[in-house]
Amino acid sequence: MTAQIIDGKAFAQQLRHRIADHVERLKTEHGLTPGLAVVIVGEDPASQVYVNSKSKQTKEVGMNSFKYELPKDTGEAELLNLIDELNERDDVNGILVQLPVPDHIDADKIIKRISPAKDVDCFTPENVGRLAIGLPGPVSCTPLGSLMLLRDQLGKLEGMNAVIIGRSNLVGKPMSQLLLRDNCTVTVAHSRTKDLPGLCRTADIIVAAVGRPEMIKGDWIKPGATVIDVGINRVDAPEKGEGKTKLVGDVEYAEAAKVAGAITPVPGGVGPMTIACLLANTITTTCLANDLTPPSDLTA
Ligand SMILES: Nc1nc(=O)c2c([nH]1)NC[C@@H]1CN(c3ccc(C(=O)N[C@@H](CCC(=O)O)C(=O)O)cc3)C=[N+]21
């Protein structure tokens, strides 16, 4: 048996088409053009690549994109002022400050300053709480994208055993909330978990979000299970030539693909969904700010 490969790149493209339709409707029926502001501090090349692709996709779906590239020595107060300004602007419906920020800036303080109504990452305490109790609002992008792929693959998730590996605020915790809401039996594993391989073998759904290259081994996977690999790790690839690198996930892909029912590849799996869901959240916040019901196909 060999696993079905879950094509996150293709799914994300379809999702962006639906988002473009919603943007068009907001424009023609309500005179609204959603706008997303992306702020990056410093010149980390990987961050720049992500931010550029976010801006490009924002424009492609017909939204306004506002990009702020600030020098790495930008002061915390200056960044807070920019956020205040963006919070006030009617043409900005979403604000994303690319993480990580330089060490002299307190990321928690920055996140807290973003208006929850424009917090398209779902990082603010208000929105984390709303997600936990099931109120409408933006939903953490990577977990939302992962959930969409799981529902598309499996239909109803009810009653399934889901093991999430990793308990971060960005992925593991919000993912557990979403899978609980879909009536899975959820276990969140972490670095102190006993017998992780044995626990994984009980899982119908595995979500790997630890940030360690190929840590989850093929023989930890129950035959037929669905595997969502959130990890994006850049590693050396001497087989491609001296000094070359490649991206791998948190799952030992080649071995896992022999036993799993379905698996997301890296790249081309969850990553593209994360960006598409950022755009989905911008539609959601635009609707909520204008007393419109957010489209049900763009949220959890
Ligand atoms: N405020 C904030 N929100 C974020 O959502 C956020 C952030 N900061 N900081 C950095 C991380 C990382 N992240 C990724 C999104 C898409 C891909 C993605 O599309 N990856 C491609 C591969 C891209 C490549 O080749 O490098 C893929 O998996 O196919 C990767 C990583 C969002 N992040």
From TrEMBL:
Indicate which residues the UniProt annotation says bind NADP(+). G166, R167, S168, I232
Known EC number: 1.5.1.5, 3.5.4.9
Q: Which Pfam families match?
A: THF_DHG_CYH, THF_DHG_CYH_C
> Which Gene3D superfamilies does this one have?
Leucine Dehydrogenase, chain A, domain 1 (3.40.50.10860), NAD(P)-binding Rossmann-like Domain (3.40.50.720)
Q: Which organism is it from?
A: Maritalea myrionectae
GO MF annotations for this entry?
Answer: methenyltetrahydrofolate cyclohydrolase activity; methylenetetrahydrofolate dehydrogenase (NADP+) activity
The entry's cellular-component GO terms read: cytosol
**Alphabetic keyword roster:** Amino-acid biosynthesis, Histidine biosynthesis, Hydrolase, Methionine biosynthesis, Multifunctional enzyme, NADP, One-carbon metabolism, Oxidoreductase, Purine biosynthesis
Q: Which family does it belong to?
A: Belongs to the tetrahydrofolate dehydrogenase/cyclohydrolase family.
General function of this protein = Catalyzes the oxidation of 5,10-methylenetetrahydrofolate to 5,10-methenyltetrahydrofolate and then the hydrolysis of 5,10-methenyltetrahydrofolate to 10-formyltetrahydrofolate.
What pathway annotation does it carry? One-carbon metabolism; tetrahydrofolate interconversion
Tell me the InterPro entries matching this sequence.
Aminoacid_DH-like_N_sf, NAD(P)-bd_dom_sf, THF_DH/CycHdrlase, THF_DH/CycHdrlase_cat_dom, THF_DH/CycHdrlase_CS, THF_DH/CycHdrlase_NAD-bd_dom
Q: What is this protein called?
A: Bifunctional protein FolD
List residues of the Tetrahydrofolate dehydrogenase/cyclohydrolase NAD(P)-binding domain: 140-286
Which GO biological process categories is it annotated with? L-histidine biosynthetic process; methionine biosynthetic process; purine nucleotide biosynthetic process; tetrahydrofolate interconversion
**SUPFAM superfamilies linked:** Aminoacid dehydrogenase-like, N-terminal domain, NAD(P)-binding Rossmann-fold domains
Report the residue ranges that make up the Tetrahydrofolate dehydrogenase/cyclohydrolase catalytic domain in this protein. Answer: 6-121
> Could you give the subunit structure recorded for this chain?
Homodimer.
